[in-house]
Amino acid sequence: MTTNVDPEKTAKDSPIEIHLATGAADGGASPPAAGAQPGATSAEPSLGPPIFRLHDLGVWYGNHHAVKGVTMEVPKNAITALIGPSGCGKSTALRCLNRMNDLIPGARVEGRVLFGDEDLLSSDVDPVDLRGRIGMVFQKPNPFPKSIKDNLEFGMKVNGIKPTAERVEQALVDAALWDEVKDRLKAEAFSLSGGQQQRLCIARAIAVEPEVILMDEPCSALDPIATLAIEDLMKKLAERYTLVVVTHNMQQAARISDQVAFMTVEGTAEGNRTGVLAEVGTARQIFSAPKDPRTEAYITGRVG
Question: How far is residue 167's CA from residue 129's CA, in Å, rounded to a whole number?
Answer without folding.
Answer: 20
